[in-house]
């Protein structure tokens, strides 16, 4: 009798989702699906609003990565105004995004994923969390919180509030960094460098030991990778052009503009998920599967452009035989990106422009149909607005990073399930591995409400006739 | 005594944001030894803020569940708790208290005010019941913070 195993919701990711694992008559996994069951509807909500409000509105999609939406929205607003923002404004926006990537990656690595690494997949789930991590390695847990706090405080010092700061506006930013804020960053940077160096050493040691198998099982398959790169092919997070590479590192498409995204990105839908399935249009659906985010950004760039991060990138490539393709290495890529962010923040605090008050350009509504793009912690984020002559939103399309990894997340879940699950008796540690496959991508499925939808982990075994065979809560 | 108020929720989802709005208003009081944070959701670094005070209030929306309907706000004393199920995207107040206690050896007196909430659609207005709950919360906290700050009578110990 064929059966379906449902994991609902997946824990320690942003938002709400469930996983269904389909077993065939022999009890072997035939397929797996990652469902997103929360519907947002922000795009409809934005219609009729002034485009100047879009940054503040879209930032409230998520409490984890509001800065990403702030920046993408502000860049889209720049294009509606058709202005070139002052150099200081670009540097300040860059600093905020670097801080955002730092704090978001720190949450993912130190608080959500490292309990699995340090305590083991099969450890007691009641202890396999941040408190288990504190017991096992209190200094690391404390350092992880301090690193996240470092990124959050930079955002606060720039925008006056940690999240939803209306500091980033079409045309630039509202104010520069203060001298006091600059000094705070200078004083705290050494500790942040120490933390990421410690984490990198620890994680590489585990990849050489207890986590060696996961590289081959957690999302190891060929796909394309997409991300922004600079004019010389360097790592980018704010400006630049889009590049696709394949799983051998060959450049498939380069110099693509976000303005033309509809020519190279398609968006498929499936009846079993609210999350869209973007794909690389020239290869069709689903062959046009591509990945975005930390590993993709490292795979599309020629180099990062800072000394220590470039050395770590080279080691990642050397360890992977030249080109890393396993999604398990997203964790590794996150740590390298934190290092890159810290080095680039260091460069920015040394730049006198960062204190300049010439940080905003002004203009009227000059373009009516524009696309903005930036790199969010989880990957490339597109905002597409159509406005009327008064600047009121007529249509919005948001292509979020998590959606672009949707095909890869489904494939990862299926790969892990097929490797580890061989009957309807599924030990907790194996279920945890399936969930951890999703956590590699650190998906953000919107936490637009917190009061609705909180629920414990729910597992269901469902027979082919729809009858419930087993049900487990934890 | 230093007090921290943390109100959380999404102000674009109607009543979901009532805790956030309470915290914003408390911040306007500019009272000595009082800090008020309006946040989208509870995240681990808040443990470091909690560790710096002797008293903390968490303000949140309280949804109806099944046949359980809430008409009046609830004031609860909170204790640290390391419930593993609370370690998804939404950290609970008790987990943050546990984190503050474990990492920073700090155990402030902690309260939670739960405000009844009925509507979670996109929007920026509060339902009448959430508005009433917001007023009640502000009155209770102002009376407490501007007088002798004795321990508050609570509905229950959570």
From TrEMBL, chain A:
<comment type="similarity">
    <text>Belongs to the [NiFe]/[NiFeSe] hydrogenase large subunit family.</text>
</comment>
<dbReference type="InterPro" id="IPR001501">
    <property type="entry name" value="Ni-dep_hyd_lsu"/>
</dbReference>
<feature type="binding site">
    <location>
        <position position="62"/>
    </location>
    <ligand>
        <name>Mg(2+)</name>
    </ligand>
</feature>
<dbReference type="Pfam" id="PF00374">
    <property type="entry name" value="NiFeSe_Hases"/>
</dbReference>
<dbReference type="GO" id="GO:0008901">
    <property type="term" value="F:ferredoxin hydrogenase activity"/>
</dbReference>
<dbReference type="GO" id="GO:0016151">
    <property type="term" value="F:nickel cation binding"/>
</dbReference>
<protein>
    <submittedName>
        <fullName>Ni/Fe hydrogenase subunit alpha</fullName>
    </submittedName>
</protein>
<feature type="binding site">
    <location>
        <position position="43"/>
    </location>
    <ligand>
        <name>Mg(2+)</name>
    </ligand>
</feature>
<feature type="binding site">
    <location>
        <position position="398"/>
    </location>
    <ligand>
        <name>Mg(2+)</name>
    </ligand>
</feature>
<keyword id="KW-0533">Nickel</keyword>
<dbReference type="InterPro" id="IPR018194">
    <property type="entry name" value="Ni-dep_hyd_lsu_Ni_BS"/>
</dbReference>
<feature type="binding site">
    <location>
        <position position="450"/>
    </location>
    <ligand>
        <name>Mg(2+)</name>
    </ligand>
</feature>
<feature type="binding site">
    <location>
        <position position="65"/>
    </location>
    <ligand>
        <name>Ni(2+)</name>
    </ligand>
</feature>
<keyword id="KW-0479">Metal-binding</keyword>
<feature type="binding site">
    <location>
        <position position="65"/>
    </location>
    <ligand>
        <name>Fe cation</name>
    </ligand>
</feature>
<feature type="binding site">
    <location>
        <position position="444"/>
    </location>
    <ligand>
        <name>Ni(2+)</name>
    </ligand>
</feature>
<dbReference type="InterPro" id="IPR029014">
    <property type="entry name" value="NiFe-Hase_large"/>
</dbReference>
<keyword id="KW-0560">Oxidoreductase</keyword>
<feature type="binding site">
    <location>
        <position position="447"/>
    </location>
    <ligand>
        <name>Fe cation</name>
    </ligand>
</feature>
<keyword id="KW-0460">Magnesium</keyword>
<keyword id="KW-0408">Iron</keyword>
UniProtKB/TrEMBL annotation, chain B:
<keyword id="KW-0378">Hydrolase</keyword>
<dbReference type="InterPro" id="IPR023430">
    <property type="entry name" value="Pept_HybD-like_dom_sf"/>
</dbReference>
<keyword id="KW-0645">Protease</keyword>
<dbReference type="GO" id="GO:0008047">
    <property type="term" value="F:enzyme activator activity"/>
</dbReference>
<dbReference type="InterPro" id="IPR000671">
    <property type="entry name" value="Peptidase_A31"/>
</dbReference>
<dbReference type="GO" id="GO:0016485">
    <property type="term" value="P:protein processing"/>
</dbReference>
<protein>
    <submittedName>
        <fullName>Hydrogenase maturation protease</fullName>
    </submittedName>
</protein>
<dbReference type="GO" id="GO:0004175">
    <property type="term" value="F:endopeptidase activity"/>
</dbReference>
């Amino acid at each position: 009798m064929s059966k379906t195993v449902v994991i609902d919701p997946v824990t320690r990711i942003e938002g709400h989702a469930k996983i269904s694992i389909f077993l065939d008559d022999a009890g072997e996994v035939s397929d797996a699906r990652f469902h997103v069951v929360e519907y947002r509807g922000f795009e409809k909500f934005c219609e009729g609003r002034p485009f100047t409000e879009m940054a503040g509105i879209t930032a409230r999609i998520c409490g984890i990565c509001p800065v990403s939406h702030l920046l993408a929205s502000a860049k889209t607003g720049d294009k509606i105004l058709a202005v070139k923002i002052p150099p200081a404004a670009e540097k300040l926006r860059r600093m905020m995004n670097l801080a955002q990537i730092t704090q978001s990656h720190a949450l993912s690595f130190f608080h959500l994923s490292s309990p699995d690494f340090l305590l083991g997949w099969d450890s007691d789930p009641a202890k396999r969390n941040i408190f288990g991590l504190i017991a096992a390695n209190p200094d690391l847990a404390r350092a992880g919180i301090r690193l996240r706090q470092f990124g959050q405080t930079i955002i606060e010092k720039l925008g006056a509030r940690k999240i939803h700061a209306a500091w980033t506006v079409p045309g630039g930013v509202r104010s520069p960094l203060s001298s006091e804020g600059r000094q705070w960053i200078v004083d705290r940077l050494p500790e942040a460098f120490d933390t990421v160096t410690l984490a990198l050493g620890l994680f590489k040691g585990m990849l050489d030991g207890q986590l060696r198998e996961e590289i081959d099982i957690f999302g190891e398959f060929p796909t394309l990778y997409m991300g922004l790169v600079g004019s010389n092919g360097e790592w980018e997070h704010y400006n630049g052009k889009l590049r696709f590479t394949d799983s051998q590192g060959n450049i498939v498409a380069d110099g693509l503009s976000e303005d033309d995204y509809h020519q190279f990105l398609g968006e498929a839908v499936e009846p079993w998920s609210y999350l869209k399935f973007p794909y690389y249009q020239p290869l069709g659906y689903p062959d046009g599967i591509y990945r975005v985010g930390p590993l993709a950004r490292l795979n599309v760039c020629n180099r990062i452009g800072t000394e220590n991060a470039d050395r770590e990138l080279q080691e990642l490539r050397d360890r992977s035989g030249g080109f890393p393709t396993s999604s398990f290495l997203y964790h590794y890529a996150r740590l390298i990106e934190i290092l890159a962010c810290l080095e680039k923040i260091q460069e920015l605090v040394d730049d006198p422009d960062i204190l300049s008050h010439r940080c905003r350009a002004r203009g009227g509504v000059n373009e009516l149909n524009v696309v903005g793009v930036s790199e969010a912690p989880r990957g490339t984020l597109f905002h597409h607005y159509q406005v009327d002559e008064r600047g009121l939103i007529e249509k919005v399309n948001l292509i979020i990073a998590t959606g672009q990894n949707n095909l890869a997340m489904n494939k990862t879940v299926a790969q892990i399930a097929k490797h580890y699950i061989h009957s309807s008796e599924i030990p907790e540690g194996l279920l945890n591995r399936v969930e951890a496959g999703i956590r590699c991508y650190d998906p953000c499925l919107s936490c637009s409400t917190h009061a609705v939808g909180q629920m414990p982990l729910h597992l269901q075994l469902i027979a082919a006739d729809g009858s419930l065979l087993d049900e487990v809560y934890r | 005594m230093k007090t921290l108020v943390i109100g959380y929720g999404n102000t674009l989802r109607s009543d979901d944001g009532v805790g956030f709005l309470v915290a914003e208003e408390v911040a306007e009081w500019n009272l000595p030894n009082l800090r008020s944070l309006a946040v989208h959701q509870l995240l681990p670094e808040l443990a470091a803020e909690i560790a710096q005070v002797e008293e903390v209030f968490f303000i949140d929306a309280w949804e109806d569940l099944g046949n359980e309907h809430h008409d009046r706000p609830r004031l609860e004393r909170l204790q640290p708790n390391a419930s593993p199920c609370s370690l998804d995207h939404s950290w609970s107040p008790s987990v943050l208290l546990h984190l503050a206690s474990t990492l920073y050896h700090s155990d402030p007196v902690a309260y939670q005010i739960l405000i009844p909430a009925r509507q979670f659609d996109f929007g920026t207005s509060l339902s009448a019941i959430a508005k009433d709950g917001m007023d009640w919360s502000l009155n209770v906290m102002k009376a407490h913070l501007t007088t002798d700050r004795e321990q508050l009578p609570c509905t229950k110990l959570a």
